[in-house]
Protein: DUF4340 domain-containing protein
Amino acid sequence: MNTRGVAIQGALAVAGLVAAFLVWQREPEGMPGEVTVLDVSPRSLQRVRYEDAARTTELSRDPNDEETVWLRLETQPQPAVATADGGVADAGGVPPPTPPRELRGNETAKGLWKRLAPLKATRALGELDAKKLEELGLTNSPRKLTLTVDGREQTFTVASPSGTSWGSPYLRREDGRVFLLGPALLPDLENASSRLVDRRKHTFEMGGFDAFTVFQGKSSRAFVVNGKPPSPVTVAPQSAPDKQDEFVRNWFDRVWRLVPTDLLGKGEEPAGGAPEEVFRVEFRQGGKPLGFVLVARGLQGGFFLKTEHLPGWAKLPSGVDTLASEAVKVSQAD
Structure:
């Protein structure tokens, strides 16, 4: 081989090495896999905020308990509808928007927090031209995802192509780079009120306590509990532990199974003000207080419930009047 041939081959070899190095250094674009969008640790992540034209959802860690995630849910007011003569349609009996609510997050919310630290995507698509951004819905998308990390906000634009579901959401970083996200992240945030709220009344189950006391007005009566589901559970007066009371057991079972229809936020009161207590049940295990359930009547009607775990009042369905009237008998000694 002559000198010129050796030089050409050497140049080609060098060019190949340079190209390989550049490909190795470059962030993968369009290739399936796991790509880091924002490298953040769970400890440095302080707040997550998702907003669109209809709602705002915020997640934050409890400063006194790292295992607790709080939600702040807010519905955006809908714009007034213009009439044909240029005026504004009468809202009539349309109720005012629900005030922002602070609620406890469930296990799904805790898992979502961990999935965001670090924030990862399935693909990195790089910087796209204006036409492609418009096709993906990213040009004028009202959907924003903001992560607060060590006091600094990082805001991302999120969207999905017109006519598609959130099964293929796209995210645009502040530096213009676009990523394809996983399928579960945005639906959880967009439907936070049904997916992320902890609706449990207690953290303990039936069988996790051995006694309870019913308070109604100035009367109170203590009972002992034996058994644990799925085995039979019996209830008897503390003064006569061998004398089972089926009436009290059935009443207590209905109280235990009360399911709220709506959860009010921390510090929020029902319309008209604080409800008036009707009866209260306090749970104990081994003589130590464990929790409580308080049923109260709203000043504008209806019944509400409060427990040691719920952050605020919870609205109850109709049919609680019978429980309230029977509480008088349950709380009175024989």
Notes: The chain has a mean pLDDT of 87. The chain has two domains: 35-78+96-195, 211-331. The longest strand covers residues 65-75. The radius of gyration is 29 Å.
